Amino acid sequence: MEKNIVSFTHVEKKYEEEYVLKDITFELKKGKFYTLLGPSGCGKSTILNIIAGFTQPSSGVVVLNGDNAINTPAEKRKVNTVFQDYALFPHMNVFDNVAFGLKLKRISKQQIREKVKTALQLVRLNGFENKETTEMSGGQKQRVAIARAIVNEPDVLLLDEPLSALDLKLRTEMQYELRALQRRLGITFLFVTHDQEEALAMSDEIMVMKNGEIVQTGTPMDIYDEPINRYVADFIGESNIVKGRMLSDYLVSFAGKRFVCVDGGMNTNEKVDVVIRPEDLTVTDADAGQIQITVETQLFRGVHYEIVGLDQSGNEWLIHSTKKTESGKIVGLTFQPEDIHIMRLSETEEDFDERIEQYTTSVNADEKGADFHG
């Protein structure tokens, strides 16, 4: 059985009367790459700070390596953090920055030299020991920060949006390096980001957050292919989300037509959200399409054309296609049953739809009454 390095059970954090975290429960296994994904202010960094010991939860249980961590001070936890701004000491060279934590432990100079050398090799900075950090690029500074964290041999490495200050090319390179480094070290990484591409590229498991809660947990493929609700579908990649109705198991109605799908277990005639990813739509001749759209715009994105069009029901469709078309043209769209993903509406969405339906019925009745009496 895989060992739990970290576990949260019903953890909450509030400041005065405002909740930052609400009923957070999860487990982190040894040697896996986890990502907390969500917008700014959703509570991601607060979870890191609780694990690191910088913040105390208002309630709940936090366990590190099988021990209740609530009363364990930060310096006693086998946890290290890599911050967004690197947090390097500008008056120290690379060696002294990386060795700082080891010196506090009062281990021998020989051990420090060996550990620093190994850590710098792991982040591909061999020979940089005497380099001033103020003379280094952003990517090199990030590697120094990571080396300083891993040199202490933590059980968990916390990474708080560490790539957000880098340019796109360097950020992509560092994604590969971080993933490879995690596999070489075999320790647990908990990565915080608001960038869904980073989360999908690097993670073994993603926890999607919203307003202090974990909305969905799963592998990148699970979350991308089977989002639990509209929020997750929108946050994880680009999506076409249209209103539909489940007619029966494996049969759904949307865009004015019926389609076979692979989802079941819902109520007959239940209102649902239907998700189809842009890359799962194929552009064809209008007569051959399962849905017909009028092309509104088309942009060339290098590897594909990004096409936006409207169907006869007024739904907007985004398509990623290698096939060029033109604005104003009517084209067809085809897709497979497994490309259709069905999501139950949240309670608030159901209530909203119900109110709109009741309002529309009421207005129509009033209009008919006015016509009759008029």
SSE layout and pairings?
Blueprint lengths: L3 E12 L2 E12 L3 E5 L6 H9 L6 E6 L2 E2 L10 E4 L11 H11 L4 H14 L15 H13 L5 E5 L7 H18 L2 E6 L2 H7 L2 E6 L2 E6 L1 H6 L4 H6 L4 E9 L2 E4 L2 E4 L9 E7 L5 E3 L6 E10 L4 E7 L4 E6 L8 E5 L6 E4 L2 H27 L1
Parallel strand pairs: 3-8, 3-9, 6-7, 7-8
Antiparallel strand pairs: 1-2, 1-4, 4-5, 9-10, 11-12, 11-14, 12-13, 14-20, 15-19, 16-17, 16-19, 17-18
In short:
Helices cover 30% and strands 33% of the residues. It is an alpha+beta fold and 374 residues long.
Protein described:
By secondary structure, the chain is of the alpha+beta class. It has two domains: 4-225, P-loop containing nucleotide triphosphate hydrolases (Rossmann fold); 239-350, no CATH class. Helix content is 30%, strand content 33%. The protein is built from nine helices and 20 strands. The protein has helices at 44-52, 94-104, 109-122, 138-150, 168-185, 196-202, 220-225, 230-235, 347-373; strands at 4-15, 18-29, 33-37, 59-64, 67-68, 79-82, 156-160, 188-193, 205-210, 213-218, 240-248, 251-254, 257-260, 270-276, 282-284, 291-300, 305-311, 316-321, 330-334, 341-344. Strand 9 and strand 10 (213-218) form a beta hairpin. Helix 2 (94-104) packs across helix 3 and helix 3 (109-122) packs across helix 4 (138-150). The longest helix is centred in the C-terminal third of the chain and has 27 residues, at 347-373. It is elongated. 33% of the residues are buried. Keywords: ATP-binding, Nucleotide-binding, Translocase, Transport. Residues 6-236 form the ABC transporter domain. InterPro entries: AAA+_ATPase, ABC_SmlMolc_Importer, ABC_transporter-like_ATP-bd, ABC_transporter-like_CS, Mo/tungstate-bd_C_term_dom, P-loop_NTPase, Transp-assoc_OB_typ2. It is an enzyme of class 7 (translocase).
